[in-house]
Specification:
With 47 residues, this protein is of the alpha+beta class. It contains 2 helices and 2 strands; from the N terminus they run E-H-E-H. It has one domain.
Length: 47
Amino acid sequence: MTFQGKMVAITGASSGVGEATARHIASLGAAVVLGAHRTERLDRLVA
């Protein structure tokens, strides 16, 4: 499956399965929009 040129929204992206999914989908070329309650952990993920 190709994600190149796609945009994907992931909730619960600050840890666990959501974080791993976000990293994987981004590595496949998608633009990833992240959502989570713990925004400080999102900052770490994006950096």
